[in-house]
Design a protein that fits this description.
Layout: E1 2-6, H1 10-25, H2 39-48, H3 56-74, E2 80-84, H4 92-101, E3 107-112, H5 115-128, E4 133-138, H6 141-144, E5 155-159, H7 169-182, E6 188-194, H8 199-205, H9 212-228, E7 237-244, E8 249-256, E9 260-264, E10 269-273, E11 278-285, H10 289-298, E12 301-308, E13 314-321
Parallel strand pairs: 1-4, 2-3, 2-5, 3-4, 5-6
Antiparallel strand pairs: 6-13, 7-8, 8-11, 9-10, 12-13
Helix pairs in contact: 2-9, 3-4
The structure holds S-adenosyl-L-homocysteine and N,N-dimethyl-L-histidine (AVI).
């Protein structure tokens, strides 16, 4: 009952080499957050979800635990759940339970760039949900979105965890428009978004006292060391997490602690960092309902369901083709 297509080929390695070369040569330097997620990066993200300061996972879990039956009914009792950036699919169980209880659960399609966690998630889910077909895709969802299998009946496409917030506005707009084009008239998108709140809480969520987020951030350097023959010294960088209140997004960086030169053998380039120089590794955008409505409208989507946790920290919205 498990079929997983892996699209991490030579083309993916070339895309990574191209991205990293361009990012390290731009001013300021920048790396894409999708490169965080090797096996270690996925494990570190799972640890982040359990941190006292990192509320988004708990808030989203609260909504899914309370409202999944309603969400599934509102989405028309779909037989297929497609999940973008599925990871361990820990919270997704609430949706799968609700689909099973509604008698519509047939197929789960996890789509993730991290092969280890996707294989493990598929193995666990077929055991937990007898009769469930898992048709996964290990790929970059921005490059391979159109490879998502079509289905006989309705599909619910879930993009949870707030991962849409890690995309830049133009990238996000293009991505949501492509999702809108994939949806049939009866299909629905379920989107998880963290909401705008006080700077202190946001900055604490991305700079925890145990240093797990710092380790997660620096892990991207380890990925480049392994994949591109780089010689980054992880101890020569520090984690920086600041809220940009104008753009309503967390801005996450690595700051060089010294003047240093880093060699990336596979790219045949050497890159200079001066002491104090910051390289952006991730943004994490925070939303309001009004802003999301306008983002949806620009992408050809409209909200048909809005669910928040009791504290109003986080929202799940259901959207349909406009
Ligand atoms: N949905 C889970 C995991 C969120 S972490 C949760 O809510 O807890 C973000 C996930 O998206 C990771 O599993 C990561 O591997 C995946 N991811 C990030 N960028 C991706 C990309 N470009 N293509 C496919 N998967 C991606
Ligand atoms: C996956 N993504 C939604 C997380 C976030 O909150 O932006 C990644 C993360 N980065 C640091 N902590 C968590």
């Amino acid at each position: 009952m498990i079929a997983i297509e892996v699209h991490l080929d030579a083309e993916a390695s070339e895309a990574m080499a191209r991205d990293v070369r361009a990012g390290l040569q731009s001013e300021p330097k920048e790396l894409a957050p999708k490169y965080f997620y090797d096996e270690r990066g996925s494990q570190l993200f799972e640890q982040i979800t359990e941190l006292a300061e990192y509320y988004p996972t708990r808030a989203e879990r609260e909504i899914l635990a309370r409202r999944s039956a309603e969400i599934v009914a509102e989405a028309g009792a779909p037989g297929t759940l497609v999940e973008l950036g599925s990871g361990s699919a820990a919270k997704t169980r609430h949706l799968l339970d609700a689909m099973r209880d509604a008698g519509c659960l047939d197929t789960y399609v996890p789509v993730d760039i991290s092969e280890e966690i996707t294989q493990e998630t598929a193995r666990c889910l077929v055991e937990e949900y007898p009769g469930l077909a898992v048709r996964g895709l290990v790929c970059d969802f921005e490059r391979h979105l159109e490879r998502i299998p079509t289905a006989e009946g309705e599909r619910l496409v879930a993009f949870l965890g707030g991962t849409v917030g890690n995309l830049y506005p133009a990238q996000r707009q293009g991505f949501l428009s492509r999702i809108a084009a994939l949806l049939g008239p009866a299909d629905r998108l379920l989107l998880g978004t963290d909401l705008v709140k006080e700077t202190d809480r946001l900055e604490a969520a991305y700079d925890d006292s145990l240093g797990v987020t710092a380790e997660f951030n620096k892990n991207v350097l380890q990925v480049l060391n392994r994949e591109l023959g780089a010689d980054f010294d992880l101890d020569a960088f520090e984690h920086v997490a600041r809220y940009d209140s104008d753009r309503e997004r967390m801005d996450i960086r690595l700051r060089s602690l010294a003047d240093q030169e880093v060699r990336l053998e596979e790219l045949d380039v050497s890159v200079e960092f001066v002491a104090g120089e910051e390289m952006r590794t991730e943004i994490s955008t925070k939303f309001t309902r009004a802003r999301l409505e306008s983002i949806y409208a620009d992408a050809g989507l409209e909200i048909c369901g809005w669910f928040t946790d009791a504290a109003g920290d986080y929202a799940l919205s259901l959207a349909r083709p406009a």
